[in-house]
# Entry
Amino acid sequence: MAQQNDQFKKVIAHCKEYGFVFQSSEIYDGLSAAYDYGPYGVELKNNIKQYWWKSMVQMHENIVGIDAAIFMHPKTWKASGHVDAFNDPLIDNKDSKKRYRADQLIEGYVEKLEAKIKKEVTKAKKRFGDSFDEEKYMLESPRVLKYKEQIEDIMARFTKAMGDGDMAELKAIIVDLDIADPDTGSRNWTDVRQFNLMFSTQLGNIAGEEGKLYLRPETAQGIFVNFLNVQKSTRQKIPFGIAQIGKAFRNEIVARQFIFRMREFEQMEMQFFVRPGEEMKWYKYWKEARLKWHKALGTPEEKLRFHDHDNLAHYANAAVDIEFEFPFGFKELEGIHSRTDFDLSSHQELSGKKLQYFDAELNKNYVPYVVETSIGCDRMFLAVLSNALQEETVPDAKGKESTRTVLKLHPAIAPVKCAVLPLLKNKEELTTKARAVFDTLKYSFNCQYDEKDAIGRRYRRQDAIGTPYCVTIDFDTLEDDTVTIRERDSLKQIRVPVSEVEAIVREGVDMKSLF
Ligand code: GAP
# Structure
């Protein structure tokens, strides 16, 4: 656990030091759960979005994109169920005055029991050495069995309480488990109550309830209300999808994990409209397709897993998370939801406008069913960055061992693709030539010209921001028009004519390799 916290602290510190992510309004001591992306952060985030957009929209003839407004008619959120059901169970500690999510307090308790099981296994492994049979131990160890039984009992009560929206039972679980305020140890709790996560604001010219607007808590509704506009204008036939990338806002009760849980964040969502009855086929298809998308970036298989939802959202008949092993454990990165015809039917009912599709093959009208893929761009950013950030021992320029911090990002999403470095700053022939090389490459890639400090330090700076290629201009370049290209991960250096640099970098950073 301590090691995990260390890695998380390193990720946050790296993001700040190298201009990836800053706390919002930092000079005023920051605004909690809001973050700003710095110069390298915005490039990385844009590349993640581009990877998603290309693979979801441009690589599918039957998926098109939109960019809907953040503000929507207030009835949208009534129809979608967000006004009535987009709640988290809130509990306050009367002594510390701190606010918690009741479900997270209970889940935290269960996580501690799971950690105890892990500890028992580690101890037993040490004790029994090579002869240790983990499967047998898990089935027979009295302590492990006791913890497992406790977990099952708690989860059964918890799942039922969440499903029934039974706030009194959630409070009872917290009291029965003797859960204390994680910060102060106080057990002086208020009752649990529902807290709606939508931010509201007011239309300029209308006072009172009538002028109340919400900041969208998901981008999906902009897609649903445009379903017929898009279908008719693009003449798409079912099955087809509509995709969107955009901001969403949630008044999260607890938001303490950097960009993992924010109050303002970005989603990349796709709604796939299908024939009623065919939704489970497409649900399975998108589950596998989305996992493949993650793996293509080089994310190790063991850091990704599916987690089926025990508690289904008000709109879903099946839902699964793709979880990633963040430095603080496995957590949701993306959701795939079978949303039935809930949204389109509700909008149809409340707006009085038909939202149906005429299926020529079946010769009938119906409200399509929907399978959704929904991923937070910021969460993806955190997953990518925490997976890429590594410390390695490598030989320095003099062949001695030294430690380097390197961001092993897939080259296709690296913020800077290529750095152009004159060997020395104060030799005009070198800097002029380096600038000329930079000027030819800058049209093709995001490149960086850097002449400050010794070459070794400049390499380290590029490693730390994940630049896959460094091109060095030295005295031989002036003689034979060749340069050295250094590759970030292998540290291999090759000598090539200047005229070949663009093609080599292009080949290495091309997004095509991801598809
Ligand atoms: N349209 C469905 C929907 O919004 P969700 O599971 O609530 O489903 C989808 O959210 C994804 O959005 C999550 O898997 C996560 O990646 C991201 N997300 C949700 N809340 C977030 C928050 N407060 N901060 C950052 N990302 C968030």
Q: What stands out?
A: The chain has a mean pLDDT of 95. The first strand starts at residue 21 and ends at 23.
